[in-house]
Amino acid sequence: MSRPRKIALVGNPNAGKSALFNALTGARQKIANYPGVTVERKSGRMVLPSGEPVEMTDLPGSYSLDPTSPDEEVTSKVIRGEFVGEAAPDALIVVLDASNLEQHLVFAQEIIALGKPTAIALNMVDLAERDGLVLDPIALEQALGVKVVPTVAVRRRGLTELGEAIAAAELRHPGPGLTQLSMTERRVAAHAMADAAILSESKRHRLHARLDRTLLHPWLGPLILFALLFVVFQAVFAWATPFADALEGGVGLLTDAVNDLVPAGLFRDLLTDGVLAGVGAVVVFLPQIVILFFFILVMEASGYMARAAFLMDRMMAGVGLSGRSFIPLLSSFACAIPGIMATRSITDPRDRLTTILIAPLMTCSARLPVYAVIIAAFIPQRTVGPGIGLQGLVLFCLYVAGIIGAMVVALILRRSVTKGAASGFIMELPKYQLPAPKDLLIGLWQRAWIFLRRAGTIIFMVTVILWLLLNFPRAAEGQNQVDASIAGKIANGLAVVVEPIGFDRDMALALIPAMAAREVAVSALATTYAVAAPVDNEDAQAMALGDQLKARWTLPMALAFLAWFVFAPQCMSTIAVTRRETNGWKWPAFMLAYLFGLAYVFAGATYWIAVAAGL
Ligand SMILES: Nc1nc2c(ncn2[C@@H]2O[C@H](COP(=O)(O)OP(=O)(O)OP(=O)(O)O)[C@@H](O)[C@H]2O)c(=O)[nH]1
Ligand SMILES: [Mg+2]
Questions:
Q1: Are 195 and 234 in a shared domain?
Q2: Are residues 460 and 530 in the same domain?
Q3: Maximum Cα–Cα distance for the chain, whole Å?
Q4: Neighbour tally for 541: CB within 10 Å
């Protein structure tokens, strides 16, 4: 008996191949891996309407037969019959997304040109209809030279017709397409075909389709995303300065008022050195937080964020994660806690664990005050190109360092601790929308409120405790108060550990309370320097934190401190949430150990490289 004919489903990512495959084969599926690669091989039996039994294969989504990823390589090799141990498919079903016709026709032409028996599933016609798109399958059929069947995979519409079409599909002469036609030529042809097949379309749909073509373009898309993020970080510095200056002035006025109204003594010191210097040092970063979230909220509300996730899916697959991890990781830019909780939507337990473990590497908004105060003090405010400020560039690099760190760690974890294949990604792209100003304002208000509440509660409390520990026991005549204090003594102990990476006692002192929350590093430094300033020296007393840092730290020290905060898991709440979400202490302990390890190594490397470079 001859083996059943083999039919493969091919098409761009997210065309609905897997949905169609499931609808066609039902439960009769076999899932395995292609030998030698971690790409899933899905096949299943089905019976065509003619009664012919066939074997159906679901191939990974691809943009062309020139592979750029392991998935695409499998698709390309299987279709051409070059995959060892895998028979070439006898017929192909090309799956197209009807609402994204032009883009999907580029790859379709390449496949049709192979000359194999081929039928087209014009899938997702329901979404196209919803978008006000009227399509003409006959026109498409004439342009492509193969049968076109409208389908809705998720509603099982058009399946019988598709079965009939593939049974009737015949071998054709290979057309010009593989070598003769360039990518550009295929794009031009795709444009003409889509034009002919689209009978009517709303203006809005045309605009959205054009936006998607650009923003989801295989290499233009990531480039635009990158450029956009770059602009965001430039803006965080460039726009915030006047507002931050005003806030700083406000804190200064308050300090003056307290100095005038409250009699000199420990209580006044608590108010000025503890509360105003400490909490004030954090609060001045409110404008930067608001600007950062303005961009994040606009990207979310406009529908762009989902596109970014879609673009990142390929990169995430490269490190063994799926695009599903993207949203939790993205939330972690605000704060790792909601990010880690959002991993509940990841079904694969090892995928989920990996995502939890790398979430703290995404630069959360609590790091922004730490980065910003040090960058403002040590990185000169000059441009390094048209419109590119050096300070914004450094901030951008710190964010990128966190992302690269996370990707490398994910790659290593997926090969060791959380070994396993990456699972697929299913996601629907929302429609583009202009963000509603009211929603934006509410979102910004919420973010600002969260930030201020933290400053008023946890940061306030930790700063007051630190102030107490810094002021007792009282220093003897001629002795520095910080040296004499309990906090100073504890910090001396830690300083021994962090001296090899270039940190001094004051930095060590800031690290301890910063375990509660990262911003506390800023308030702790401000309070420490306020307490340390000689009482009789008015100038030293009035010095802003940035000037204090400039006077006391070297550039290598500052850079090492930045590198430390890229990695260090200085956030009690994150550890607690990780414990809750992983049901035990094993993984939070692992997380603490590896992140502190990385922080130590990278801060040290940064310090010694900077020293060697003569900075
Ligand atoms: N409304 C609608 N949704 C569909 C249709 N076909 C697929 N989908 C949805 O589109 C999304 C992507 O479908 P998949 O089947 O995973 O796409 P794929 O082509 O296998 O994607 P890759 O495996 O990434 O190449 C899923 O959320 C499906 O539920 C359809 O005809 N109509
Ligand atoms: Mg699929």
A1: no
A2: yes
A3: 102
A4: 17
Do 339 and 412 belong together in one domain?
yes
Q: When comparing pLDDT for 426 and 217, which is higher?
A: 217
The answer to whether position 210 is within a domain reads: no
Q: What percent of the chain has pLDDT over 70?
A: 95
**CB of 356 closer than 6 A to ligand 1?**
no
Whether residue 349 is preceded by a cis peptide bond, meaning omega within 30 degrees of 0, is: no
Which of 152, 173, 201 is the last residue before a domain boundary?
201
Instruction: Answer yes or no: is 608 within a domain.
Output: yes
Nearest Cα to Cα of residue 329 among 301, 294, 364: 364
Q: Are residues 369 and 455 in the same domain?
A: yes
Please tell me the distance from the alpha carbon of residue 43 to that of residue 202, in angstroms, as a whole number: 39
245 C-beta neighbours (distance < 10 Å), count: 12
CATH code at position 47: 3.40.50.300
Please tell me the number of the ligand nearest to residue 154's CA.
1
Which pLDDT tens digit goes with each residue over 362-409?
Answer: 999 889 999 999 999 999 988 888 888 899 999 999 999 999 999 999
State if residue 429 touches ligand 1 by the CB under 6 angstroms criterion: no
| 152 ligand 1 Cβ < 6 A | yes
In a domain, 433, yes or no: no
**Could you tell me if 133 and 234 lie in one domain?**
no
Rounded to two decimals, the ipTM of the complex is 0.98
Please give the tally of structural domains in the chain.
2
- b/e 543-562 (16+ beta carbons within 10 angstroms → b): bbbbebbbeebbbbbbbbbb
Other Cβ atoms less than 10 A from the Cβ of 384: the count is 11
Does residue 188 sit in the same domain as residue 247?
A: no
Q: Which of 33, 35, 30 is nearest to 45 (CA)?
A: 30
* Domain hosting residue 54, numbered range: 6-201
> Looking at the structure, do residues 229 and 195 belong to the same domain, yes or no?
no
Q: For residue 329, how many other CB atoms are within 10 A of its CB?
A: 25
> Which ligand has the shortest distance to the CA of 19?
1
**Boundary-marking domain end, from 153, 170, 201:** 201
Q: Could you count the other beta carbons within 10 Å of the beta carbon of residue 411?
A: 15
The answer to whether residue 427 sits within a structural domain is: no
Measure 121 CA to ligand 1 centroid, in angstroms: 12
Q: Measured between alpha carbons, how far is 234 from 288 in angstroms, rounded to an integer?
A: 11
Q: What is the share, in percent, of the chain residues with pLDDT greater than 90? A: 46
| Cα separation, 8 vs 169, whole angstroms | 13
For residues 182 and 226, membership in a common domain is answered with: no
Q: What pLDDT digit, counting tens, does each position of 504-547 carry?
A: 999 999 999 998 889 899 999 999 998 888 766 767 666 788 89
Whether ligand 1 lies within 6 angstroms of the CB of 123 is answered as yes
Q: Determine the distance separating the centroid of ligand 2 and the alpha carbon of 8, expressed in angstroms.
A: 12
